Amino acid sequence: VKQLIVAINKMDTTKWSEDRFKEIVKETSNFIKKVGYNPKTVAFVPISGFNGDNMIDSSSNCPWYKGWEKETKAGKSSGKTLLDAIDSIEPPTRPTEKPLRLPLQDVYKIGGIGTVPVGRVETGTIKPGMVVTF
């Protein structure tokens, strides 16, 4: 896991207390720093999952919250909601130039079709019509 979002849930139970949010951000920042993450690269978002506040649209319950900001490889990224934070996640680069590596998850024997291996391409590429031996 290279990128994190910290959604601080149940803010409605603290009546959207700014002090409680800052306290949780401070404690969580210290913890994620200890496990090897830079807190400046993490978005901290106050939400109420039960009420749906600050998840898709900005909540009027926390006028003190100006939004999150985080550092990324491309520069700085910012937003207000959990959806904004999810949208700011940079997709990982796939090593398509390497040889094909496809760990098998399962093998199905389907009548009339044959043996169908199922897995996820980790490196390389696979195209329709390619002959792959296992």
UniProtKB/TrEMBL annotation:
InterPro entries: P-loop_NTPase, T_Tr_GTP-bd_dom, TRAFAC_GTPase_members
A Pfam family this chain is assigned to: GTP_EFTU
Signal peptide, first to last residue: none
Keyword entries, A-Z: Elongation factor, GTP-binding, Nucleotide-binding, Protein biosynthesis
Annotated transmembrane regions: none
Residue span(s) of domain Tr-type G: 3-91
GO molecular function term, any single one: GTPase activity
PANTHER family xrefs: TRANSLATION FACTOR (PTHR23115)
Protein's UniProt name: Elongation factor 1-alpha
Gene transcribed to yield this protein: EF1a
